[in-house]
Amino acid sequence: MDTSVQWREWSLEGLKVTQLKFDYQIHVHMWTRERDLAVIFEAPVTLLTAGGEACECYYAKSATLCPLLSLLFQEVSAFHASSEGECRLEFEDGTELVCGPDEQYEAWQSHGSGNLVNASLLCGPAGGAPWGVA
Fold first, then answer.
1. What is the DSSP letter of 75?
2. What's the order of all strands across the beta sheet hosting 45-48?
3. Is the model's pLDDT at 2 over the cut of 70?
4. Strand ranges for 7-120 from DSSP E
5. 3-state DSSP call for residue 23?
6. CA-to-CA distance for 52 and 83, rounded, in angstroms?
7. Does this model's pTM top 0.85?
């Protein structure tokens, strides 16, 4: 049985963050007429800057959300999801937004359209492959 971590990747070339929304979740939306991807975080996310700085952001602690504002209108390059329930949203400037699974709750979900429809995923409690059993 193969227990190595598997990753799936979707190119987001040509997309930029067009909407950030904070409520009891963190919504990051990227779209064009041809395709879109929305990633919704319900667990803490880590913002990793191109310079190596890390900042933990969580909707329940509104003061931690300020660094995420710098993502608005930024070009994105790729979305990655792992078989352990981690996701990464990569930006053209080297910045990354990373979220891992939560032990009790759904940590994140993504919804895509166009050629990103197969990037519609759900990270269930305690992680695991968000794309289901392969």
1. B
2. 7-11, 76-82, 87-91, 96-99, 45-48, 54-57
3. no
4. 7-11, 17-22, 26-31, 36-41, 45-48, 54-57, 76-82, 87-91, 96-99, 108-113
5. coil
6. 25
7. yes
